[in-house]
Amino acid sequence: MSSIKVGLFGLGTVGEGIVNVISKARNADAEIKRICVRDASKPRNVNVPKSMITENRSDIFEDPEINLIVEVINDPEAAFEIVSEALSRGISVVSGSKTMIARHLPELIELQRKHNVSLLYDASSCGSIPVIRNLEEYYDNDLLLEVKGILNGSSNFILSRVFDHNESYDQALQTAIDLGFAEADPSFDIEGYDSLYKLIIITVHALGVYVKPNDIFTYGITHISDFDINYAREKRVKIKLVAQVVKISDNRFTMFVMPEFVTKSRYIYSVDDEYNGVVIRGECYDRQFMFGKGAGSLPTASSILSDMVAHHHGYKYDYKKMGYADVPQYTTDVLLKVYIRFLETPILESLPFISIQERYISKSNNYIIGEIKLCDLISHREILDHQDVSLINISRFFEDLDQ
Amino acid sequence: MSSIKVGLFGLGTVGEGIVNVISKARNADAEIKRICVRDASKPRNVNVPKSMITENRSDIFEDPEINLIVEVINDPEAAFEIVSEALSRGISVVSGSKTMIARHLPELIELQRKHNVSLLYDASSCGSIPVIRNLEEYYDNDLLLEVKGILNGSSNFILSRVFDHNESYDQALQTAIDLGFAEADPSFDIEGYDSLYKLIIITVHALGVYVKPNDIFTYGITHISDFDINYAREKRVKIKLVAQVVKISDNRFTMFVMPEFVTKSRYIYSVDDEYNGVVIRGECYDRQFMFGKGAGSLPTASSILSDMVAHHHGYKYDYKKMGYADVPQYTTDVLLKVYIRFLETPILESLPFISIQERYISKSNNYIIGEIKLCDLISHREILDHQDVSLINISRFFEDLDQ
């Protein structure tokens, strides 16, 4: 069997990690032939010959020796151009670009089928934790009921600083930026989009359904206030940013990204710092928990390496579940129990609660705990975005309103 | 693609689970054609037509419609007969028989190659946790450094009763038997053999090396006394039965099964009750933790179903790592730090400690904490089997004495 000859797009943190990991994994029989970057003159932290680096995509696309393209660039639209061109030219791709994949997965699946090539992307969801491959191959049946987890390391790091180190939210955010666990502009992570894109990819492999980003309720951690934090501490729970896809009946499922009060008895309670943790629940095997480093140069790169070798051995995603006779339908018509904190926004008057369990009123803060439909949270989204409002999920089990 | 037509050997707990799981997984396109049991007249907990059950192996072997044999019987030697006959006849097998597989793996690999058939056995190690498949496919490179875990649910359940419910060892053992978490004769589990056999299988897929059961130090939990339990409680640690395979250098590794003092900061500390947990450590991805139900009718059966479907899609183990140019060597020439409790046995005089860190002497109990080679524990095994002696591992990192 010939060796893996890689054309690499991107030499940022993950690209550098790939160079390092390939040099360590002596038995993988892989080598990087060419690296395409935006700025060839930029200094790099890894030692690669200057001649290997190019700014010209066709130096990779037209090299007949290259039998695999690895794409780990930051710009999702450029990534989509590169990956779709590669697939159209009959070259398989390993990619780590979650945003690009989550936005374009139906087209990318079509391209794989049309050109009989493979696109692997386990690194795109939870870095080194093999979530996608396990959902696709091992949990490859209709027993799966739920995938739920902490998919974003940055926001989890911030919340850990708050709950394990007693920092305020603002302090914690600064610590995360200072230590490199959050970007200088952290909005992609803390507003929940990173979790959202991972959840979309996971859902394709968990239930065989692609749902568009705009159709999914995504509420990040930016609204969390000291009041919410104190409330959680008093109740001896932590606030975590949780992404979940849940079957609520044989033929319906829901999904969303939302902060959640997490009690100590739950597996994800102990997922701290920059770690990710995923709970896979099935009808016969109950809960399985996978835990590890969800991001970072070497963890992500080692996941890319696994995909490279898997491709070399002929592996491709079958997207089997998409072909099932009874693929479940996505619904937002489900009842959630939520905590909503507010000051001036007239929450009670504006939101169509089905029932109210608790009301707290004071001069500085009010909150309501009540039941409301997910679709009503979506349709009243602008209220939830008010400065003085925060939303935290409490429900563990959903009621399917159509049953 | 034709459907999966199963010849099932065994209709005990797991066999019944398989019947149930197949009936639930409507999209798996699998059906059981025939079930071979030792006693066809025995009443069963599942509803299968009488005509499906036979006592005659050839009713399965000679049925041309059966394209997969699933073997889940209790007797390891009979299991080996069945599996090797099936493979020799060119029929692929899914098996859950850890003892049989751990004892006969080299012959079974040879049979798979010779007859170009597949034997899958993910259920044999940690039930529903996909350890084998992940080691074989995802951690399929030489970055892997260590696999360590709680692989036996029965002994873990007993130790959990002791440390989380303050029961004595004897009470805990009785509770485990009463609740069905341990067999009436629990020796296979509590003496560490169940963990040992799983560890042997894991090591083949982790490092590409098969080590015979007799060459591996295996010390169960039967010697643990109230004194040891109190010692652990005072130190705020738990005692867990830990199986581990660890690379101690680029070309050497060691493995053993031994009770261990586990501190709160370790992932396996929280693996309680009948659960299993496995930590996979690698050079680039640090520690990954997988947690779930390691045994039981439905969890094990759902793992069997995954293997059935994987086989149907052409999956087989490649045993890639066995073909690496630099497969690591098994050694027991490593230094461990251990706690040995004793009363009358002259431990200090009998065992060749390299160094002693602590000595405790009293009328009712004595203990030593010291460093000793694993090979010396093996060669002095009979002393460690004395009634008044118990051995508990403390070391987390090993020194390779040949380096």
List the helices and strands and how they pair.
Two copies of one chain form a homodimer.
Chain A: E1 4-9, H1 13-24, E2 30-36, E3 53-54, H2 58-61, E4 68-71, H3 76-88, E5 93-95, H4 98-115, E6 119-120, H5 131-138, E7 144-150, H6 153-165, H7 169-178, H8 187-190, H9 193-207, E8 217-218, H10 226-234, E9 238-249, E10 252-262, E11 275-282, E12 286-293, H11 297-312, E13 329-330, E14 334-342, H12 347-350, E15 355-361, E16 366-373, H13 374-379, H14 381-384, E17 390-393, E18 399-400
Parallel strand pairs in A: 1-2, 1-4, 2-3, 4-5, 5-6, 8-10, 10-13
Antiparallel strand pairs in A: 7-9, 7-11, 9-10, 11-12, 14-16, 14-17, 14-18, 15-16
Helix pairs in contact in A: 1-11, 3-4, 4-9, 5-9, 6-7
